[in-house]
Write a structure and sequence with these properties.
Structural class: mainly beta
Shape: globular
Order of helices and strands: EEEHEEEEHEE
Distance between the termini: 43 Å
Number of helices: 2
Helix content: 10-25%
Length: 128
């Protein structure tokens, strides 16, 4: 399967700043949302923590973890944190699961889960 991209709306729910509309890379092999530094600055995102990341070559380094950041795609949304690295927005599986969206291998696009088209569904287990 080739590269999958999606149009997202990113905003900072903690500040009254204009949202950004971005084209993101969708990566089912990545866990987190990653944003370039210029996106974090434009949204006024504050550094919450440092996170150690491991590159494909095995090297590690510290990057800022910022938030809160709201993500919207079609009729879905979530609030999360983001790693600040790279030169483009990258959508990983944690926010994808939170929004109940998935990659369609047929169309190579990000889509709302067809089993739950009107509202995101989450699986939770509770002890009785």
């Amino acid at each position: 399967m080739g590269l999958v991209n999606a149009d997202l709306k990113l905003s900072n729910p903690a500040r009254d700043i204009q949202p950004l509309y971005v084209r993101s890379l969708v990566d089912t092999g990545a866990m987190n949302l990653c944003v370039p530094e210029h996106v974090a600055v434009q949204l006024g995102l504050e550094e919450l923590y440092k996170r150690e990341v491991t590159n494909a070559d095995g090297s590690t380094h510290l990057v800022p973890y910022v938030g809160p950041i709201a993500i919207e795609f079609e009729n879905r949304g979530c609030v999360t944190g983001a790693l600040v690295l790279g030169d483009e927005v990258l959508l990983g599986v944690v926010p994808m699961e939170d929004m109940d969206v998935l990659v369609s291998p047929t169309t190579q696009t990000l889509i709302v889960n067809p089993a739950n088209p009107n509202i995101a569904r989450a699986v939770v287990k509770a002890a009785r």
